[in-house]
Description:
- The complex is a heterodimer.
- Chain A is of the alpha+beta class.
- Helix content of chain A is about 55%, strand content about 15%.
- In chain A, strand 1 and strand 2 form a beta hairpin.
- Chain B is built from 28 helices and 21 strands.
- In chain B, strands 1, 2, 3, 4, 5, 6, 7, 8, 9 and 10 form a 10-stranded mixed beta sheet that branches. Chain B has a 6-stranded mixed barrel with strand order 13-14-19-16-18-17. A 4-stranded antiparallel beta sheet of chain B has the order 12-20-11-21.
- In chain B, helix 24 packs parallel to helix 27 (about 855-880).
- Chain B is elongated.
Amino acid sequence: MPRDEPTLGDLEKLTLLAVLRLGETAYGASVRKELAERAGRSVTVSTVYVTLMRLEEKGLVESWLGEPTGVRGGKAKRHFRLGPEGAAALRSERETLERMWEDMEERLVRIEAGDARAG
Amino acid sequence: MPVPAEPPRLAEALVRLLLPPELEDAVAGDLAEEFAERARAGSRVSAALWYWGQLLRLRPIRLRRQLRRLGGAWSPGGRRAVRTTSSGFIEPTMETLKQTFRRLRREPGFATIAVLSLALGIGANTAVFSLVNVLFLQDRGIYEPERAVQIYRVGDSPYWSISWPWYREIRDGTTAFEAVSALRFVPVRIGDRDDVVSAVRVSGDYFGVMGVQPALGRAFVPGEETDVERSSDVVILSHDYWLRFEGGSPAVLGREIRVNARPHTVVGVLPPDFQGSVSGVSAGVYLPDHGAVTSRADNLWGGGRLADGATLRQAETELAVVAAAINAGRPEGATPIEFNMVLESGVHVQPGLDEAIAPMAALLFGVVGLVLLIACTNLASFLLARASDRKKEFAVRMALGAGRGRVVRQLLTESTILSVAGGVCGVILSWWGLRLLLSVPPALPVSVDLDVSPGLRILAFTLVVSLLAGLFFGVFPALQASRSEVAPTLRDESGGTTGGRGTWNLRGVLVVAQVALSLVLLAGAGLFLRSLAQAATIDPGFDPEGLAMVTVDPATTGYEPAEWAPLYDRLLARARALPGVEAAAAGSRVPLQLGNYRTGVRRTDVEPEPGREYWFAQVVYAGEGYFEATGTEIRRGRPLGTPDPGGPVPVVMSRSLVDRLWNDPAFDPVGQPVRLSASEEGGLVVGVTETVHVNGLGDDEAMIYLPMARFEISPVLLLARGSGSEAARAEELRQLAKELDPDLYVHSAMSAERSAGLALFLPRMAAGLLASFGALALLMAAIGLYGVVGYTVRRREKEVGIRISLGADRGDVVRLMMKGGLVLVGTGVAAGLVVALAGGRLLERFLYGVSGTDPLTFAGIAVVLLGVAALAAWLPARRAARIEPLEALRSQ
């Protein structure tokens, strides 16, 4: 990965992915839920916002304040969406992982099967 | 709808207290929302517990710190509801640019190859355009060229030179011209330098005809050249010469420089944009043509400028009257004179040369155009492959409402960035290449000087070519992407076994085009190489191997004509004493040296045909031992020997001249008397040589050899044959001449092979260029094919897996994978052969000894191409055999 691209923490990656997955419906609570349900990562509301702000600081997500809604006591949501840099960062992450994974499935299976020669 | 549960008041108050105002709505809202959900799904108590838990773990300090780092972006009114990418044109374009650069940076290999191949293609086009520009498009610096004419005599070609007396008749016998001039190119020596400066000697108001005012000083005063006393020898410098040798100093006016050992006063410097009468041939200095008056020179190019109100028609009529008057005064049977005018505005280099250069330029443009086309095709193919890999990405973008336009724009941005980068590198490459090409001085009698530095017009051309190229190779993938259907792509149908079918997709067509184009180029290269090989088997009529030569010019050193022959004798005596020298002689020229020095000859026993007083043959003035030294074989009779001072001039002629004079190549002319235009005394044929090639291996110009002893010849070539290095021997010859007289003008020391090399220059260059471009094209086509087959294998992995698990032979699988590729190659070869066979006919005029449809060449090239293509298809196809069925089926 080129030097000038920000490195991503584990939680940041997952949060980016959650924002990507949620599309138009990404905001603090939905991201937190997505992280809990899909990634099995239970994080506090506070942590979600720190992470989202950090991602915005890195230019990977964009956010804007929506209109107040009654469901949440008349409070406005802050919506998030992936910026082009965020998309690029995710793609790069994915490619790195895929490169690392290339041809490894068989070994993994063998190791899981207890074959000592593998690896 | 039930009212949602409210979170515990105290806890909520604390949350509000702890949060910065910018986060209040978002965070407290989220907490309230989830509290309500939990309360609905479970109990209010557990929801309240959860809320308190969140409060305890609220990290107000971290949140505030992180918020500060956002720099007010979240403050109310900061960027509220502003969607940065939804509207406007500039913004998305900048964003597209940024995205593109990011993509390219992630694929440095692809970007490098793309830019390089484009640079080669665009660079080649820029180089050829630079040449065309300087030869055909550049302003030659002539004022109102549509009112200036060049005047020739119609002879074997419409552009024969005129003689001084005729020039005088035109000058005095016409009123349609306000100025009339004549000029000839002559090499001169300046100062004591032993280099050759090409000079233009002018008669009449040359600068008036050109409409050129010197930048410094004055033009020639009309009549300056007829001042036979030469009380004032004057010289005008070209702008280039002035800068190079006089440092661009205005103080040069009035300075004396020696031209051919005579002091001349510099009276003017020409403006920089004046290209001279023949663009590309740089005349260093301009001199009044004193000699033309006395020597009745007949190698002049006439020129005239139409007077105010005079028409071209009027000038034509007047010229015809002048010609009629001249013809009336000529002897019975003499060829009638007819003048021919060419408007300067229609001349590019020189009317005769234009006819030869234009098809060469067209050929070159054709070649480099093909190279660029192949480069673009290759990139289009690459981008198509990438586009189909990125299909899903595009589909997602479109599904999210990115719009086709935006996706297409991104792809086109990408291709444009690549092609503009390629164009920038191409300009640099072409400049290097041209400088390299032009820095090798061909052994021409005049110095070629082409200013090919990239000017505005060339940069504009390159930009247009780059953009067109970018559009061309970007439009295919863009079209494909914009056609891609969102839903099926997202459902992922690429893994199906049907996905890999269809050899005849766009990429396939591109491979066919590439193979066809590279076949065309390679066939061209093959034809030129065969032509060269044929040329090498031709007997040039002399033996350049082992022959060294140097030019000595006593005339321009200030020797009197009577002193020339004794000087040559002394030089030859010294040359024969050099170690290793077997034979030495003097002569005016050697074969294959290029040049046009003719003399007239005719039989005495028959009346000349009407309209043809003499046969004109290329003349060589040969000293004693010339035939032995040059290795020219005497087939009949004897060499010239030592002629008597009086009596008929002994003559040796080439078989082709015998054929022309007696209409019978087998006729033995030895002992026959002939009339010569060069001597009143007449000649006697003493010997016959084989056909000798003067201006190229393809010509068989008639040659006549006259003894130097009967004529006063300067400059001459000193020739020495022997063992060892010819270049070293040429240098020895130069040194011994300088030792004998340090002032003697001695130049152009070189081997005869180098001198003869120019005759092969054109076919060698053509073969070299076509072969290297053809190889490049083949490489690109191979890469393209490799990509296509590799891609097919990847897409059909599952199918192959099934086939193998069903017991298909792995060799069969490889063949199956290759088959599609080879069908493409076969089609390409067939299409290429058709085009190349048609194109070969156009090449025929440049070829020697080989037909433009030479079956051996075409078959050979087709076999080479098929071989390379098979390899390029086999390499990726081999991978198919290694596919593990289980893995292939499990993947995706």
